[in-house]
């Protein structure tokens, strides 16, 4: 068998495995920090390589949450993993190899700030996929009139 096809098969099989990673730190209201690798972005990151701006809503998060959730789920190949008041954890799979990324949103109910984190589970680099996902979501939220 050609080495290229063997590598492709191996990548496909490992992409289907279930991977876990720390979601929230100590079950607090804050998202877990990004690792040093360039495969994660977060509104809570302090360095430019990982930092994205939080979403600033036009109304309290508790009022906008159903619309936010609907827009998140409109992202291709996304499904809810966990949801609780002020927190949404969504799994997003890549088209070709079905790699898993995790998208999280967290907000205080009466706050207009929504923190966001998007991270790849596998690999060192995401080639900008997570940043693009967050900015796509930002554009959709803005188009829906949910962002200032």
Task: Offer a quick outline of the entry.
28% of the residues lie in helices and 23% in strands.
Structure report:
There is one protein chain. The protein contains three helices and six strands. With 148 residues, it is α+β, with helices and mostly antiparallel strands. It has a domain at 41-143: TATA-Binding Protein, CATH 3.30.310.10. It is globular, with a radius of gyration of 16 Å. The termini are far apart. 28% of the residues are buried.
List the helices and strands and how they pair.
Layout: H1 3-15, E1 40-42, E2 55-56, H2 61-73, E3 78-84, E4 87-93, E5 100-106, E6 113-120, H3 129-143
CATH architecture of the domain at 41-143: 2-Layer Sandwich
Level of helix content? Answer: 25-40%
Mean pLDDT over the full residue set: 86
The CATH homology group name of the domain at 41-143 = TATA-Binding Protein
- Total number of helical segments? 3
Distance between the termini: 55 Å
Here the CATH topology of the domain at 41-143 equals: TATA-Binding Protein
Order of helices and strands: HEEHEEEEH
Radius of gyration: 16 Å
Care to count the β-strands? 6
The major β-sheet equals: 6 strands, antiparallel
Low-confidence stretches: 6-28
Structural class comes to alpha+beta
Task: Tell me the name of the CATH class of the domain at 41-143.
Answer: Alpha Beta
Shape: globular
How much of the polypeptide forms β-strand, as a percent range? 15-25%
């Amino acid at each position: 068998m050609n080495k290229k096809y063997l590598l492709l098969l191996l990548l496909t099989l490992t992409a289907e495995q279930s991977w876990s990673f720390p979601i929230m730190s100590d079950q607090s209201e804050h998202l877990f920090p990004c690792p040093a690798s360039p495969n994660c972005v977060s509104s809570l990151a302090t360095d430019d390589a990982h930092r994205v701006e939080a979403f600033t809503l036009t109304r309290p998060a508790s009022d906008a949450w159903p619309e936010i959730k609907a827009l998140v789920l409109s992202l291709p190949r996304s499904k809810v993993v966990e949801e609780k008041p002020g927190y949404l954890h969504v799994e997003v799979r890549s088209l070709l190899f079905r790699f898993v990324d995790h998208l999280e949103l967290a907000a205080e109910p009466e706050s207009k700030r929504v923190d966001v984190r998007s991270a790849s589970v596998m690999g060192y680099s995401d080639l900008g996929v997570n940043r693009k996902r967050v900015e796509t979501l930002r554009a959709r939220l803005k188009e829906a009139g949910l962002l200032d």
